[in-house]
Predict the structure.
Amino acid sequence: MTPTRRNFLMGAAALSAAVATPEMVRAAAALDATADWALATRDLESDVAPQALRLVHGRAPAGLEGTLFRNGPAKFRRPGGSATHWFDGDGLMRSFDIRDGKATLQARFADTPKRRYEAELDAVVTPGFGTAGDSRARLDSNDAANAANTAVMVAGDKIWALWEAGSPLAMDPGSLATEGFVTLRDDLKGMPFQPHPRYAPDGTVWNVGTSGGQMVVWHMRADGGLIDASLVRLPRASYLHDFTATDRHLVIVLQPWVFDHHGMPFASQFAWKPELGTQVLVLDKADLTQSRIFELPTFSFFHLGDAWADREGTIRFDVAAGKDVQFAVEGARVLVQQRGRVPGEPAVLKLITLHADGRADMVSSGAVGEFPKANPRFAGLNRTLTAHTAGETPDRPLPTGLAVQDWASGASDSFEFGIGHIVEETVFVPKPDARTERDAWLVGPAINLRQGVTELHVFDAGHVSDGPVATWRADVALPAGFHGAWKG
Amino acid sequence: MKIAALALIAALMAAPAFAAPAVSDDATVTLTFDTAATTGQVMVVLFGSEAAYGGQGAPVAQAVVDVAAGQHTATFTVPAGDYAAKSFHDVNGDGRMNTNPFGMPTEPYAFSNNTRGNMGPATWAQAHFAVEGDTAQTISLR
Protein backbone atom coordinates (compact mmCIF):
# COMPACT_ATOMS: atom_id res chain seq x y z
CA MET A 1 0.00 0.00 0.00
CA THR A 2 1.33 3.40 -0.95
CA PRO A 3 1.25 5.75 1.99
CA THR A 4 -0.84 8.80 1.20
CA ARG A 5 -1.53 11.89 3.17
CA ARG A 6 -5.14 10.71 3.63
CA ASN A 7 -4.46 7.33 5.15
CA PHE A 8 -1.61 8.75 7.17
CA LEU A 9 -4.05 11.15 8.77
CA MET A 10 -6.56 8.38 9.36
CA GLY A 11 -3.83 6.35 10.98
CA ALA A 12 -2.93 9.24 13.23
CA ALA A 13 -6.57 9.65 14.22
CA ALA A 14 -6.88 5.97 15.05
CA LEU A 15 -3.70 6.12 17.11
CA SER A 16 -4.78 9.17 19.08
CA ALA A 17 -8.14 7.53 19.80
CA ALA A 18 -6.29 4.70 21.48
CA VAL A 19 -4.41 7.05 23.77
CA ALA A 20 -6.30 8.24 26.82
CA THR A 21 -5.94 11.98 27.10
CA PRO A 22 -6.79 13.75 30.35
CA GLU A 23 -9.86 15.21 28.65
CA MET A 24 -11.07 11.76 27.69
CA VAL A 25 -10.55 10.44 31.19
CA ARG A 26 -12.54 13.33 32.61
CA ALA A 27 -15.32 12.80 30.06
CA ALA A 28 -15.47 9.08 30.80
CA ALA A 29 -15.58 9.74 34.53
CA ALA A 30 -18.44 12.19 34.01
CA LEU A 31 -20.39 9.54 32.12
CA ASP A 32 -19.68 6.99 34.83
CA ALA A 33 -20.74 9.20 37.74
CA THR A 34 -24.33 9.32 38.88
CA ALA A 35 -25.99 12.20 37.07
CA ASP A 36 -27.40 15.14 39.01
CA TRP A 37 -30.81 14.38 37.44
CA ALA A 38 -30.75 10.90 39.01
CA LEU A 39 -33.33 11.94 41.62
CA ALA A 40 -35.88 11.70 38.79
CA THR A 41 -35.67 7.92 38.92
CA ARG A 42 -34.74 7.40 42.56
CA ASP A 43 -36.33 4.59 44.55
CA LEU A 44 -38.73 5.51 47.29
CA GLU A 45 -38.67 2.78 49.93
CA SER A 46 -41.97 3.58 51.60
CA ASP A 47 -45.09 5.71 51.50
CA VAL A 48 -44.83 9.38 52.47
CA ALA A 49 -47.07 10.27 55.43
CA PRO A 50 -48.95 13.57 55.12
CA GLN A 51 -46.56 16.48 55.63
CA ALA A 52 -47.10 20.21 55.60
CA LEU A 53 -45.20 21.94 52.80
CA ARG A 54 -43.28 25.11 53.59
CA LEU A 55 -44.09 28.21 51.56
CA VAL A 56 -40.70 29.40 50.24
CA HIS A 57 -41.79 31.90 47.59
CA GLY A 58 -44.76 34.19 46.94
CA ARG A 59 -48.11 33.68 48.55
CA ALA A 60 -50.95 31.20 48.17
CA PRO A 61 -53.44 32.56 45.62
CA ALA A 62 -56.82 33.33 47.16
CA GLY A 63 -59.44 30.93 45.81
CA LEU A 64 -57.05 28.13 44.89
CA GLU A 65 -58.53 25.22 46.83
CA GLY A 66 -58.31 21.56 45.91
CA THR A 67 -56.03 18.62 45.36
CA LEU A 68 -53.54 17.82 42.64
CA PHE A 69 -53.28 14.04 42.36
CA ARG A 70 -50.24 12.79 40.48
CA ASN A 71 -48.96 9.37 39.55
CA GLY A 72 -45.58 8.07 38.47
CA PRO A 73 -43.07 5.29 39.00
CA ALA A 74 -41.15 5.40 42.27
CA LYS A 75 -39.57 1.98 42.90
CA PHE A 76 -37.37 0.40 40.24
CA ARG A 77 -34.66 -1.59 41.95
CA ARG A 78 -34.76 -4.73 44.10
CA PRO A 79 -31.86 -6.99 45.07
CA GLY A 80 -33.05 -9.96 42.98
CA GLY A 81 -33.83 -7.99 39.80
CA SER A 82 -34.89 -4.51 38.75
CA ALA A 83 -37.12 -2.58 36.41
CA THR A 84 -34.77 -1.35 33.69
CA HIS A 85 -37.08 1.18 32.04
CA TRP A 86 -38.61 4.43 33.35
CA PHE A 87 -42.14 3.29 32.49
CA ASP A 88 -41.93 0.13 34.62
CA GLY A 89 -41.43 1.29 38.22
CA ASP A 90 -44.18 0.79 40.81
CA GLY A 91 -46.82 3.52 40.71
CA LEU A 92 -46.75 6.07 43.52
CA MET A 93 -49.90 8.15 43.96
CA ARG A 94 -49.17 11.61 45.30
CA SER A 95 -51.65 14.19 46.53
CA PHE A 96 -50.76 17.87 46.84
CA ASP A 97 -53.60 19.35 48.81
CA ILE A 98 -54.03 23.15 48.84
CA ARG A 99 -56.52 24.50 51.36
CA ASP A 100 -56.79 27.73 53.36
CA GLY A 101 -53.53 28.92 51.87
CA LYS A 102 -51.61 25.89 53.10
CA ALA A 103 -50.25 22.95 51.15
CA THR A 104 -49.90 19.33 52.28
CA LEU A 105 -48.23 16.41 50.53
CA GLN A 106 -48.76 12.71 50.93
CA ALA A 107 -47.83 9.79 48.71
CA ARG A 108 -48.72 6.13 48.72
CA PHE A 109 -47.75 3.24 46.46
CA ALA A 110 -50.49 1.61 44.43
CA ASP A 111 -50.87 -1.76 46.16
CA THR A 112 -50.92 -3.91 43.02
CA PRO A 113 -50.59 -7.72 42.81
CA LYS A 114 -47.33 -7.07 40.92
CA ARG A 115 -45.85 -4.97 43.72
CA ARG A 116 -46.97 -7.42 46.41
CA TYR A 117 -45.48 -10.40 44.61
CA GLU A 118 -42.23 -8.62 43.79
CA ALA A 119 -41.90 -7.32 47.36
CA GLU A 120 -42.27 -10.91 48.57
CA LEU A 121 -39.51 -12.08 46.18
CA ASP A 122 -37.48 -8.89 46.67
CA ALA A 123 -37.02 -8.96 42.91
CA VAL A 124 -38.67 -7.29 39.93
CA VAL A 125 -39.58 -10.24 37.71
CA THR A 126 -42.60 -9.04 35.74
CA PRO A 127 -42.20 -7.96 32.11
CA GLY A 128 -43.20 -4.39 31.35
CA PHE A 129 -42.97 -1.78 28.64
CA GLY A 130 -39.19 -2.00 28.49
CA THR A 131 -38.30 -4.47 31.24
CA ALA A 132 -37.81 -8.07 30.13
CA GLY A 133 -38.72 -9.74 33.45
CA ASP A 134 -37.91 -13.40 34.02
CA SER A 135 -39.47 -16.84 34.42
CA ARG A 136 -40.57 -16.12 37.98
CA ALA A 137 -43.23 -13.75 36.61
CA ARG A 138 -46.87 -14.61 37.27
CA LEU A 139 -48.36 -13.23 34.11
CA ASP A 140 -51.77 -14.88 34.00
CA SER A 141 -53.67 -11.71 33.17
CA ASN A 142 -52.86 -8.19 31.99
CA ASP A 143 -53.48 -6.86 35.47
CA ALA A 144 -50.85 -9.21 36.91
CA ALA A 145 -48.36 -6.86 35.19
CA ASN A 146 -50.29 -3.68 36.01
CA ALA A 147 -47.92 -1.17 37.61
CA ALA A 148 -50.73 1.43 38.00
CA ASN A 149 -48.01 4.02 37.46
CA THR A 150 -48.93 6.37 34.64
CA ALA A 151 -51.82 8.72 35.32
CA VAL A 152 -54.78 9.39 37.55
CA MET A 153 -58.43 10.04 36.84
CA VAL A 154 -60.98 11.46 39.26
CA ALA A 155 -63.99 9.12 39.05
CA GLY A 156 -66.81 10.25 41.32
CA ASP A 157 -65.64 9.86 44.91
CA LYS A 158 -62.66 7.69 43.93
CA ILE A 159 -59.43 8.22 42.08
CA TRP A 160 -58.26 5.69 39.54
CA ALA A 161 -54.58 4.95 38.97
CA LEU A 162 -54.17 4.27 35.26
CA TRP A 163 -51.79 2.08 33.27
CA GLU A 164 -52.25 1.63 29.54
CA ALA A 165 -52.43 -2.16 29.21
CA GLY A 166 -54.83 -2.99 32.04
CA SER A 167 -57.70 -2.02 34.29
CA PRO A 168 -57.97 1.18 36.34
CA LEU A 169 -57.02 0.71 40.00
CA ALA A 170 -59.42 2.44 42.41
CA MET A 171 -57.87 4.32 45.33
CA ASP A 172 -59.33 6.44 48.11
CA PRO A 173 -58.68 10.14 47.43
CA GLY A 174 -58.28 10.94 51.14
CA SER A 175 -56.06 8.14 52.40
CA LEU A 176 -54.69 7.06 48.98
CA ALA A 177 -55.43 3.47 50.08
CA THR A 178 -55.79 0.98 47.24
CA GLU A 179 -59.26 -0.52 46.85
CA GLY A 180 -58.84 -2.77 43.80
CA PHE A 181 -59.07 -3.06 40.04
CA VAL A 182 -62.18 -1.64 38.43
CA THR A 183 -64.22 -3.86 36.11
CA LEU A 184 -66.49 -1.58 34.08
CA ARG A 185 -68.63 -4.51 32.90
CA ASP A 186 -68.17 -8.21 33.71
CA ASP A 187 -67.61 -9.26 30.09
CA LEU A 188 -64.96 -6.54 29.69
CA LYS A 189 -62.88 -7.48 32.72
CA GLY A 190 -59.19 -6.81 32.17
CA MET A 191 -59.65 -4.81 28.95
CA PRO A 192 -57.02 -2.06 28.61
CA PHE A 193 -57.95 1.43 29.76
CA GLN A 194 -55.40 4.00 28.61
CA PRO A 195 -53.98 6.73 30.86
CA HIS A 196 -55.44 9.72 29.01
CA PRO A 197 -59.24 9.83 29.21
CA ARG A 198 -60.76 12.82 27.38
CA TYR A 199 -63.55 14.94 28.78
CA ALA A 200 -66.43 16.03 26.58
CA PRO A 201 -68.42 19.29 26.91
CA ASP A 202 -71.51 17.17 27.77
CA GLY A 203 -69.77 16.02 30.97
CA THR A 204 -69.07 12.49 29.77
CA VAL A 205 -65.65 10.88 29.49
CA TRP A 206 -64.15 8.95 26.58
CA ASN A 207 -61.20 6.60 26.62
CA VAL A 208 -59.64 3.84 24.54
CA GLY A 209 -57.52 0.73 24.97
CA THR A 210 -55.70 -1.24 22.32
CA SER A 211 -54.48 -4.75 21.63
CA GLY A 212 -52.71 -5.11 18.29
CA GLY A 213 -55.06 -3.79 15.62
CA GLN A 214 -58.11 -3.78 17.88
CA MET A 215 -59.31 -0.89 20.01
CA VAL A 216 -61.96 -0.70 22.68
CA VAL A 217 -63.71 2.66 22.99
CA TRP A 218 -65.00 3.44 26.48
CA HIS A 219 -67.72 6.04 27.04
CA MET A 220 -68.41 6.86 30.69
CA ARG A 221 -70.21 9.19 32.99
CA ALA A 222 -68.07 11.53 35.08
CA ASP A 223 -68.40 9.15 38.04
CA GLY A 224 -66.75 6.39 36.01
CA GLY A 225 -69.96 4.48 35.32
CA LEU A 226 -69.97 2.87 31.89
CA ILE A 227 -72.36 4.25 29.27
CA ASP A 228 -71.13 2.07 26.44
CA ALA A 229 -68.12 0.18 25.14
CA SER A 230 -67.45 -0.57 21.48
CA LEU A 231 -64.79 -2.35 19.46
CA VAL A 232 -63.08 -0.67 16.54
CA ARG A 233 -60.65 -2.27 14.09
CA LEU A 234 -57.62 -0.02 13.51
CA PRO A 235 -56.09 0.37 10.04
CA ARG A 236 -52.68 -0.34 11.56
CA ALA A 237 -51.47 -1.90 14.81
CA SER A 238 -49.53 1.12 16.06
CA TYR A 239 -48.22 1.64 19.55
CA LEU A 240 -50.75 4.00 21.15
CA HIS A 241 -50.40 5.78 24.50
CA ASP A 242 -52.81 8.67 23.99
CA PHE A 243 -55.70 9.71 21.77
CA THR A 244 -57.66 12.95 21.64
CA ALA A 245 -61.20 14.12 21.03
CA THR A 246 -63.30 17.08 19.92
CA ASP A 247 -66.89 17.51 21.04
CA ARG A 248 -67.88 15.35 18.04
CA HIS A 249 -64.85 13.22 17.10
CA LEU A 250 -62.35 10.73 18.46
CA VAL A 251 -58.89 11.30 16.98
CA ILE A 252 -56.54 8.32 16.90
CA VAL A 253 -52.98 9.09 15.80
CA LEU A 254 -51.25 6.01 14.36
CA GLN A 255 -47.50 6.43 14.35
CA PRO A 256 -45.37 4.12 12.19
CA TRP A 257 -44.22 2.16 15.26
CA VAL A 258 -46.18 -0.95 14.46
CA PHE A 259 -46.67 -4.44 15.81
CA ASP A 260 -44.09 -6.76 14.34
CA HIS A 261 -43.80 -9.91 16.47
CA HIS A 262 -44.88 -11.30 19.85
CA GLY A 263 -42.37 -10.98 22.62
CA MET A 264 -41.40 -9.26 25.83
CA PRO A 265 -40.71 -6.59 26.89
CA PHE A 266 -43.84 -5.06 25.40
CA ALA A 267 -42.03 -2.36 23.40
CA SER A 268 -39.81 -4.96 21.71
CA GLN A 269 -42.86 -6.11 19.75
CA PHE A 270 -42.99 -2.93 17.69
CA ALA A 271 -40.89 -2.01 14.64
CA TRP A 272 -40.19 1.62 13.72
CA LYS A 273 -41.07 1.99 10.01
CA PRO A 274 -40.67 5.69 9.17
CA GLU A 275 -41.39 4.99 5.50
CA LEU A 276 -45.05 4.39 6.40
CA GLY A 277 -45.70 7.96 7.57
CA THR A 278 -48.10 8.78 10.39
CA GLN A 279 -51.85 8.29 9.94
CA VAL A 280 -54.73 9.88 11.79
CA LEU A 281 -58.00 7.99 12.16
CA VAL A 282 -61.02 10.17 12.94
CA LEU A 283 -64.13 8.48 14.28
CA ASP A 284 -67.56 10.04 14.64
CA LYS A 285 -68.54 9.84 18.33
CA ALA A 286 -72.21 9.47 17.35
CA ASP A 287 -71.47 6.54 15.03
CA LEU A 288 -68.12 4.83 15.49
CA THR A 289 -68.47 3.03 12.16
CA GLN A 290 -68.04 6.41 10.43
CA SER A 291 -64.32 6.98 10.00
CA ARG A 292 -61.84 8.98 7.95
CA ILE A 293 -58.07 8.56 7.58
CA PHE A 294 -55.60 11.44 7.13
CA GLU A 295 -51.94 11.11 6.13
CA LEU A 296 -49.07 13.06 7.72
CA PRO A 297 -45.30 12.92 7.48
CA THR A 298 -43.62 10.58 9.95
CA PHE A 299 -43.40 11.53 13.60
CA SER A 300 -43.43 9.62 16.88
CA PHE A 301 -45.38 10.69 19.95
CA PHE A 302 -46.64 9.85 23.38
CA HIS A 303 -48.87 12.84 24.13
CA LEU A 304 -51.56 14.89 22.41
CA GLY A 305 -53.46 18.02 23.44
CA ASP A 306 -57.25 18.33 23.57
CA ALA A 307 -58.73 18.63 20.06
CA TRP A 308 -61.38 20.99 18.74
CA ALA A 309 -63.40 21.27 15.53
CA ASP A 310 -64.78 24.38 13.83
CA ARG A 311 -68.12 24.69 12.06
CA GLU A 312 -66.63 23.64 8.73
CA GLY A 313 -65.38 20.43 10.32
CA THR A 314 -61.70 21.33 10.47
CA ILE A 315 -60.09 19.53 13.42
CA ARG A 316 -57.07 20.87 15.31
CA PHE A 317 -54.97 19.45 18.14
CA ASP A 318 -51.42 19.63 19.36
CA VAL A 319 -48.83 16.93 19.71
CA ALA A 320 -45.47 16.61 21.43
CA ALA A 321 -43.86 15.24 18.29
CA GLY A 322 -40.67 13.23 18.23
CA LYS A 323 -38.36 12.30 15.37
CA ASP A 324 -38.16 8.61 16.20
CA VAL A 325 -38.55 6.16 19.11
CA GLN A 326 -35.00 6.34 20.46
CA PHE A 327 -36.07 7.87 23.75
CA ALA A 328 -38.94 5.41 24.20
CA VAL A 329 -36.74 2.39 23.63
CA GLU A 330 -33.33 3.45 24.86
CA GLY A 331 -33.49 6.88 26.52
CA ALA A 332 -36.01 5.85 29.15
CA ARG A 333 -33.75 2.88 29.97
CA VAL A 334 -30.71 5.10 30.51
CA LEU A 335 -32.79 7.35 32.78
CA VAL A 336 -33.10 4.43 35.20
CA GLN A 337 -29.34 3.79 34.98
CA GLN A 338 -29.01 7.34 36.32
CA ARG A 339 -25.79 8.02 34.43
CA GLY A 340 -24.50 8.68 30.94
CA ARG A 341 -26.00 10.40 27.93
CA VAL A 342 -29.70 9.77 27.40
CA PRO A 343 -30.34 9.06 23.70
CA GLY A 344 -33.20 10.62 21.78
CA GLU A 345 -34.10 14.18 20.89
CA PRO A 346 -36.61 16.21 22.90
CA ALA A 347 -40.13 16.37 21.46
CA VAL A 348 -41.34 19.60 19.84
CA LEU A 349 -44.84 21.02 20.31
CA LYS A 350 -46.68 21.04 16.96
CA LEU A 351 -50.22 21.78 15.82
CA ILE A 352 -51.98 19.35 13.49
CA THR A 353 -54.85 20.49 11.29
CA LEU A 354 -57.17 17.98 9.63
CA HIS A 355 -59.08 19.77 6.89
CA ALA A 356 -62.60 18.86 5.84
CA ASP A 357 -61.37 18.14 2.29
CA GLY A 358 -59.09 15.33 3.55
CA ARG A 359 -55.81 17.24 3.64
CA ALA A 360 -53.73 17.28 6.81
CA ASP A 361 -50.85 19.50 7.84
CA MET A 362 -48.65 20.11 10.83
CA VAL A 363 -46.94 23.31 11.96
CA SER A 364 -44.28 23.59 14.62
CA SER A 365 -44.35 25.99 17.53
CA GLY A 366 -40.57 25.83 17.40
CA ALA A 367 -40.63 25.10 21.13
CA VAL A 368 -39.34 21.96 22.78
CA GLY A 369 -42.29 20.61 24.71
CA GLU A 370 -43.84 17.59 26.40
CA PHE A 371 -46.88 16.92 28.61
CA PRO A 372 -49.29 19.24 26.73
CA LYS A 373 -52.28 20.28 28.83
CA ALA A 374 -55.23 22.56 28.14
CA ASN A 375 -57.82 24.35 30.27
CA PRO A 376 -60.39 21.65 31.19
CA ARG A 377 -63.31 24.12 30.82
CA PHE A 378 -62.50 24.14 27.09
CA ALA A 379 -61.95 20.40 26.59
CA GLY A 380 -63.17 19.47 23.13
CA LEU A 381 -63.95 23.11 22.32
CA ASN A 382 -62.26 25.90 20.42
CA ARG A 383 -59.21 27.01 22.40
CA THR A 384 -55.80 28.59 21.85
CA LEU A 385 -53.63 27.84 24.90
CA THR A 386 -51.49 24.80 25.61
CA ALA A 387 -49.28 24.51 28.67
CA HIS A 388 -46.25 22.25 28.30
CA THR A 389 -42.95 21.44 29.93
CA ALA A 390 -39.95 23.06 28.25
CA GLY A 391 -36.21 23.49 28.31
CA GLU A 392 -35.02 19.97 27.60
CA THR A 393 -31.95 19.79 25.35
CA PRO A 394 -30.37 16.90 23.42
CA ASP A 395 -27.47 16.95 25.89
CA ARG A 396 -29.51 16.74 29.05
CA PRO A 397 -32.70 14.78 29.74
CA LEU A 398 -35.90 16.03 31.37
CA PRO A 399 -37.58 19.46 31.31
CA THR A 400 -36.32 22.51 33.17
CA GLY A 401 -39.07 25.00 32.34
CA LEU A 402 -42.72 25.62 31.70
CA ALA A 403 -44.39 27.42 28.79
CA VAL A 404 -47.82 28.31 27.49
CA GLN A 405 -48.17 28.26 23.72
CA ASP A 406 -50.80 30.59 22.27
CA TRP A 407 -51.71 29.05 18.90
CA ALA A 408 -53.76 32.13 17.90
CA SER A 409 -50.90 34.61 18.22
CA GLY A 410 -47.99 32.19 17.88
CA ALA A 411 -46.51 33.57 21.11
CA SER A 412 -44.86 31.42 23.76
CA ASP A 413 -44.97 32.64 27.36
CA SER A 414 -42.28 30.70 29.20
CA PHE A 415 -40.35 30.45 32.43
CA GLU A 416 -37.04 28.65 32.77
CA PHE A 417 -35.98 27.36 36.20
CA GLY A 418 -32.60 26.24 34.89
CA ILE A 419 -30.79 22.94 35.07
CA GLY A 420 -31.09 22.72 38.85
CA HIS A 421 -34.74 21.74 38.42
CA ILE A 422 -36.74 18.95 36.83
CA VAL A 423 -40.12 20.35 35.90
CA GLU A 424 -43.10 17.99 35.78
CA GLU A 425 -46.49 18.26 34.05
CA THR A 426 -48.66 21.16 35.23
CA VAL A 427 -52.45 21.21 35.08
CA PHE A 428 -54.80 24.12 34.46
CA VAL A 429 -57.00 25.04 37.42
CA PRO A 430 -59.65 27.57 36.36
CA LYS A 431 -59.95 30.53 38.74
CA PRO A 432 -63.25 30.77 40.66
CA ASP A 433 -64.50 33.70 38.54
CA ALA A 434 -62.91 32.51 35.28
CA ARG A 435 -64.33 33.79 32.00
CA THR A 436 -61.52 33.10 29.55
CA GLU A 437 -59.09 30.31 28.92
CA ARG A 438 -56.34 32.40 30.45
CA ASP A 439 -58.18 32.87 33.78
CA ALA A 440 -56.48 29.89 35.37
CA TRP A 441 -53.57 28.80 37.48
CA LEU A 442 -51.04 26.21 36.40
CA VAL A 443 -50.19 23.83 39.23
CA GLY A 444 -47.43 21.27 39.17
CA PRO A 445 -44.34 20.03 40.98
CA ALA A 446 -40.67 20.17 40.17
CA ILE A 447 -37.65 18.53 41.75
CA ASN A 448 -35.21 21.11 43.10
CA LEU A 449 -31.95 19.25 42.52
CA ARG A 450 -29.79 21.60 44.57
CA GLN A 451 -32.05 21.37 47.61
CA GLY A 452 -32.73 17.68 46.92
CA VAL A 453 -36.48 18.08 47.47
CA THR A 454 -39.77 18.25 45.60
CA GLU A 455 -41.45 21.64 45.27
CA LEU A 456 -44.97 22.58 44.26
CA HIS A 457 -45.32 25.61 42.01
CA VAL A 458 -48.36 27.68 41.10
CA PHE A 459 -48.22 29.96 38.06
CA ASP A 460 -50.73 32.40 36.68
CA ALA A 461 -51.55 30.84 33.28
CA GLY A 462 -51.68 34.33 31.73
CA HIS A 463 -48.28 35.39 33.08
CA VAL A 464 -45.99 32.37 33.06
CA SER A 465 -42.84 34.38 32.36
CA ASP A 466 -43.37 36.25 35.66
CA GLY A 467 -42.42 33.01 37.40
CA PRO A 468 -44.33 31.14 40.10
CA VAL A 469 -46.82 33.08 42.21
CA ALA A 470 -46.30 30.55 44.99
CA THR A 471 -43.79 27.80 45.70
CA TRP A 472 -44.04 25.28 48.53
CA ARG A 473 -41.21 22.94 49.48
CA ALA A 474 -41.37 19.36 50.81
CA ASP A 475 -38.64 17.76 52.90
CA VAL A 476 -38.40 14.81 50.51
CA ALA A 477 -37.58 14.38 46.82
CA LEU A 478 -40.20 12.29 45.08
CA PRO A 479 -39.05 10.79 41.78
CA ALA A 480 -40.45 12.55 38.71
CA GLY A 481 -44.10 11.74 38.10
CA PHE A 482 -45.92 11.44 34.80
CA HIS A 483 -49.49 12.75 34.86
CA GLY A 484 -51.86 14.48 37.23
CA ALA A 485 -55.48 15.49 37.67
CA TRP A 486 -57.01 18.27 39.75
CA LYS A 487 -60.00 17.74 42.03
CA GLY A 488 -61.50 21.05 43.14
CA MET B 1 -50.10 -6.61 26.68
CA LYS B 2 -51.61 -9.36 24.50
CA ILE B 3 -51.42 -12.74 26.04
CA ALA B 4 -52.35 -15.74 23.95
CA ALA B 5 -55.65 -17.41 24.80
CA LEU B 6 -54.95 -20.25 27.14
CA ALA B 7 -54.95 -23.87 26.12
CA LEU B 8 -56.82 -24.43 29.35
CA ILE B 9 -60.02 -23.20 27.80
CA ALA B 10 -60.01 -25.96 25.21
CA ALA B 11 -58.93 -28.56 27.73
CA LEU B 12 -61.83 -27.69 29.99
CA MET B 13 -64.46 -27.77 27.27
CA ALA B 14 -64.45 -31.57 27.07
CA ALA B 15 -67.09 -34.17 27.97
CA PRO B 16 -69.22 -34.05 31.13
CA ALA B 17 -67.78 -35.12 34.43
CA PHE B 18 -67.49 -38.71 35.44
CA ALA B 19 -66.05 -40.43 38.46
CA ALA B 20 -63.07 -42.67 37.84
CA PRO B 21 -63.86 -46.28 38.72
CA ALA B 22 -62.51 -47.28 42.12
CA VAL B 23 -59.74 -49.87 42.03
CA SER B 24 -58.03 -51.39 45.04
CA ASP B 25 -54.68 -49.79 46.04
CA ASP B 26 -55.90 -46.52 44.58
CA ALA B 27 -55.59 -43.26 46.49
CA THR B 28 -57.91 -40.30 46.68
CA VAL B 29 -57.01 -36.84 45.47
CA THR B 30 -59.14 -34.20 47.13
CA LEU B 31 -59.10 -30.72 45.61
CA THR B 32 -60.80 -27.95 47.56
CA PHE B 33 -61.53 -24.71 45.78
CA ASP B 34 -61.42 -21.36 47.50
CA THR B 35 -63.62 -19.09 45.40
CA ALA B 36 -64.37 -15.39 45.65
CA ALA B 37 -67.88 -15.70 44.16
CA THR B 38 -70.50 -18.14 45.46
CA THR B 39 -72.28 -18.62 42.17
CA GLY B 40 -71.85 -21.09 39.29
CA GLN B 41 -69.52 -24.06 39.29
CA VAL B 42 -65.86 -24.99 39.29
CA MET B 43 -64.72 -27.09 36.36
CA VAL B 44 -61.65 -29.18 37.12
CA VAL B 45 -59.68 -31.58 34.95
CA LEU B 46 -57.02 -33.98 36.28
CA PHE B 47 -54.16 -35.15 34.05
CA GLY B 48 -51.83 -38.09 34.62
CA SER B 49 -49.00 -37.25 32.27
CA GLU B 50 -47.13 -34.25 30.92
CA ALA B 51 -48.30 -35.12 27.41
CA ALA B 52 -51.97 -35.18 28.38
CA TYR B 53 -51.57 -32.00 30.43
CA GLY B 54 -50.07 -30.39 27.33
CA GLY B 55 -53.08 -31.40 25.20
CA GLN B 56 -51.63 -34.61 23.74
CA GLY B 57 -53.89 -37.19 25.33
CA ALA B 58 -56.98 -37.62 27.46
CA PRO B 59 -57.36 -36.43 31.02
CA VAL B 60 -57.58 -38.98 33.82
CA ALA B 61 -60.73 -37.47 35.29
CA GLN B 62 -62.81 -34.34 35.45
CA ALA B 63 -65.44 -32.95 37.75
CA VAL B 64 -67.94 -30.15 38.15
CA VAL B 65 -68.12 -28.65 41.63
CA ASP B 66 -71.48 -27.02 42.24
CA VAL B 67 -70.41 -23.86 44.02
CA ALA B 68 -73.93 -22.43 43.87
CA ALA B 69 -75.08 -25.44 45.93
CA GLY B 70 -72.34 -24.87 48.50
CA GLN B 71 -69.88 -27.46 47.21
CA HIS B 72 -66.15 -26.70 47.24
CA THR B 73 -64.47 -30.06 46.80
CA ALA B 74 -63.77 -32.56 44.05
CA THR B 75 -62.48 -36.02 44.96
CA PHE B 76 -60.81 -38.37 42.48
CA THR B 77 -59.73 -41.96 43.08
CA VAL B 78 -56.59 -42.71 41.08
CA PRO B 79 -53.61 -45.07 41.01
CA ALA B 80 -50.36 -43.81 42.50
CA GLY B 81 -48.48 -41.57 40.11
CA ASP B 82 -47.89 -37.97 39.08
CA TYR B 83 -50.85 -35.70 38.43
CA ALA B 84 -51.68 -32.09 37.65
CA ALA B 85 -55.00 -30.24 37.56
CA LYS B 86 -56.41 -27.33 35.60
CA SER B 87 -59.50 -25.55 36.87
CA PHE B 88 -61.65 -22.51 36.37
CA HIS B 89 -64.60 -20.98 38.14
CA ASP B 90 -67.55 -20.74 35.78
CA VAL B 91 -68.95 -17.87 37.83
CA ASN B 92 -72.02 -17.24 35.67
CA GLY B 93 -72.69 -20.96 35.17
CA ASP B 94 -72.86 -20.79 31.39
CA GLY B 95 -70.61 -23.83 31.00
CA ARG B 96 -67.86 -21.85 29.29
CA MET B 97 -64.70 -20.11 30.34
CA ASN B 98 -65.63 -16.59 29.34
CA THR B 99 -63.11 -14.24 27.74
CA ASN B 100 -63.14 -10.53 27.05
CA PRO B 101 -63.19 -9.30 23.42
CA PHE B 102 -59.38 -9.35 23.36
CA GLY B 103 -59.34 -13.04 24.30
CA MET B 104 -58.35 -12.75 27.96
CA PRO B 105 -60.20 -14.92 30.50
CA THR B 106 -62.74 -13.01 32.58
CA GLU B 107 -63.35 -15.88 35.02
CA PRO B 108 -60.77 -17.05 37.59
CA TYR B 109 -58.59 -20.00 36.65
CA ALA B 110 -55.85 -21.86 38.49
CA PHE B 111 -53.61 -24.91 38.44
CA SER B 112 -52.63 -27.49 41.02
CA ASN B 113 -49.95 -26.45 43.51
CA ASN B 114 -51.61 -23.01 43.19
CA THR B 115 -49.16 -22.19 40.45
CA ARG B 116 -50.00 -19.28 38.21
CA GLY B 117 -49.60 -19.11 34.47
CA ASN B 118 -47.00 -16.95 32.80
CA MET B 119 -48.40 -15.85 29.43
CA GLY B 120 -50.11 -19.23 29.19
CA PRO B 121 -50.94 -22.15 31.49
CA ALA B 122 -48.60 -23.14 34.30
CA THR B 123 -46.21 -25.83 33.11
CA TRP B 124 -46.44 -29.48 34.09
CA ALA B 125 -43.16 -29.01 35.98
CA GLN B 126 -44.84 -26.35 38.13
CA ALA B 127 -48.26 -27.95 38.51
CA HIS B 128 -47.60 -31.69 38.93
CA PHE B 129 -47.72 -33.46 42.28
CA ALA B 130 -46.99 -37.02 43.38
CA VAL B 131 -49.84 -39.22 44.63
CA GLU B 132 -48.59 -42.04 46.84
CA GLY B 133 -51.44 -42.09 49.34
CA ASP B 134 -54.48 -39.92 49.91
CA THR B 135 -53.62 -36.40 48.82
CA ALA B 136 -55.36 -33.06 49.38
CA GLN B 137 -54.80 -29.54 48.03
CA THR B 138 -56.62 -26.25 48.28
CA ILE B 139 -56.63 -24.23 45.08
CA SER B 140 -57.40 -20.53 45.16
CA LEU B 141 -59.79 -19.32 42.45
CA ARG B 142 -59.93 -15.70 43.53
